[in-house]
């Protein structure tokens, strides 16, 4: 996930995720680096996750180390050729962006998926 921010307003970026599961249910966990856990109390980062069934969930990273979403998929194909992808959208508030140096901050998040 990459995005360009031009100095004002929030930055929202999104990516498609291919998630396949024989059980058709899974948990997506997002782990944040200490940089974000320590600096977001007054400017939380918002994550919106839309699974392959279209169910949307939103959570804010507000000092905790991780967030989790549950999802469903009809795909058992590891390339997701048989379904639409899930979508993860991240919104960084302007206040947080103005406090950071320019850089690649999305690499500071780790994503993991576990079948349920």
The profile of the biggest β sheet is: 4 strands, antiparallel
Number of strands: 7
What global shape is seen? elongated
For the terminal residues, how far apart are their CA atoms?
Answer: 26 Å
The appropriate CATH architecture is Sandwich
> Biggest sheet, strands in spatial order?
1-6-3-4
By CATH, the topology is Jelly Rolls
Instruction: Give the count of structural domains.
Output: 1
Order of helices and strands: EEHEEEEHE
Runs in which pLDDT lies below 50 for 5 or more consecutive residues are none
Number of helices: 2
**Radius of gyration computed on alpha carbons:** 15 Å
> Based on helices, strands and strand pairing, what is the structural class?
mainly beta
Percent range of helical residues = under 10%
- CATH class, anyone? Mainly Beta
Strand content of the residues, in percent?
A: 35-45%
Overall residue-averaged pLDDT value: 84
Overview in brief:
This protein has helices at 34-39, 94-98; strands at 11-17, 25-32, 45-50, 56-61, 66-72, 86-92, 109-115. It has 116 residues and is mainly beta.
Structure report:
- With 116 residues, the chain is mainly beta.
- It has a single domain (11-115), classed as Jelly Rolls.
- It has 2 helices and 7 strands; from the N terminus they run ββαββββαβ.
- The chain has a 4-stranded antiparallel sheet with strand order 1-6-3-4. Strands 5-2-7 form a 3-stranded antiparallel sheet.
- β3 and β4 (56-61) form a beta hairpin.
- The chain is elongated and about 45 Å long.
- The two termini are 26 Å apart.
- The model has no long low-confidence stretch (mean pLDDT 84).
């Amino acid at each position: 996930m990459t995005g360009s921010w031009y100095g004002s307003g929030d930055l929202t970026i999104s990516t498609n995720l291919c998630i396949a599961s024989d059980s058709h249910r899974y948990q997506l966990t997002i782990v944040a680096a200490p940089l974000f856990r320590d600096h977001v109390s007054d400017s939380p980062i918002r994550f919106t996750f839309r699974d392959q069934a279209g169910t949307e969930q939103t959570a804010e990273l507000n000092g905790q180390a991780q967030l989790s979403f549950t999802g469903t998929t009809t795909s058992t194909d590891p390339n997701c050729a048989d379904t639409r992808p899930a979508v993860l959208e991240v919104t960084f508030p302007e206040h947080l962006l103005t406090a950071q140096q320019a850089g690649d901050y999305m690499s500071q998040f780790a994503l993991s998926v576990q079948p349920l």
